[in-house]
Amino acid sequence: MISRRTVILAAASALATLTLAGCSFSCSIGEKTASSSEMNSQLTDSYEQRTGIPLTSVDCPEVKAEVGEQFSCTGTNERDIDLDIDGKVTSADEPDDKIKFRWNVVRATAPGELYSTAARKSLERQSGRPLKSVTCPDRIPIREGAEVHCTVETADGEQLSATLTLTDLDGGFRINVDQSGSVPADTSGA
Question: pTM score, two decimals?
């Protein structure tokens, strides 16, 4: 078993966004709505200001200038973390032509390659032996306790089954290699 706190540097700061609550921004209203482009721009700025990580894409709807109005956006940050972001209008000030919002990341998925690379390095460091590869699913949900199945290939070509378990929202994980030997056969697509 590989120990806790193997940190994936490329993803750690990106995953920390999940712990942010109560982030807010404001934008101008026209015709009692905030346009999709204004929402995208303001959320992009707010996200980078709070996390230090730019969003490379974001898609928000037009939002009514009504307190309590809820909205959902999707985005991807520069670490290739896919995000679902929910928000709510907290105030609508017509004389100032401003709406204020609060937002939270409610779901994130990371590229499996981030974990594959970090798991390989960690297993090699722990065992003192080189590995040919560690292969995990293409996308991994970022939530504490999430488990994914990976394949470990040793330098001599032996394939082992492994379970990677996320231990926190900051990139920490534990990987357990099945010590029985081989990878179970895949019967799902036969």
Answer: 0.73
